[in-house]
Amino acid sequence: MNTSPRSKGRPEALAEKVYQALKQDIFEFRLMPGDRFSENEIADRLEVSRTPVRQALFWLEREGYVEVWFRSGWQVKPFDFEYFEELYDFRTVLECEAVRRLCALPAPQCIDMLTALKSFWMDAPPLADGKAVSAQDEAFHMALVAAAGNQEMARIHAELTEKIRIIRRLDFTRDDRMEATYREHAQILRAIFQQQTEEAQRILTDHIAVSKAEVRKITLHMLQQARLQPIE
């Protein structure tokens, strides 16, 4: 164990640092669904006191990532398949509404707003790196919602996107899913540029439904493999 002095600083800043570190551990499968741990273990590993660790864990508990076990420490919440499916349903509603608003804009204005997405998903050579494509996939869907112009809708969508990130990371370990993502994103953009609202919403809904269906296929073995062979 590292013997350097424990970090010192403002409690809020330390708690934020611990919060971000633990959330990244969950997203990168270093902390698995069902894993149990103590505040002391986290404090020792991150070289901070228990106070910011406890604060960070309460934040993560409020967001649904961990839960406390009376007198037996903390646990990363096990997968709740119905919860994730509800998040995917909510995501579909938000993104279809964003598409409707984008299709209602003058075509030149809409194309101009989504130029960066067109450049990446339709014009540039596809990436082969699963982690990079996963990040760009998140950015694509968030950009669609942000471009619709409702800041509160974009904020809620961003929070939802973070909650399903662990599922999406698993989805991008397969080449066929990455290829489909490029193809379907291009189809969505073409339909939006042509102001074909129903077609764009149909493609988008089907696109999200495939990812949603993958939720039920997740097994403990898949998660263990993800920890042993993290996505590069």
From TrEMBL:
Residues 12-79 form the HTH gntR-type domain. The keyword Magnesium does not apply. It comes from the Bacteria. The keyword Transcription applies. Keywords: DNA-binding, Transcription, Transcription regulation. It holds the Pfam family GntR. GO terms for molecular function: DNA binding; DNA-binding transcription factor activity. InterPro entries: GntR_C, TF_FadR/GntR_C, Tscrpt_reg_HTH_GntR, WH-like_DNA-bd_sf, WH_DNA-bd_sf. This is GntR family transcriptional regulator.
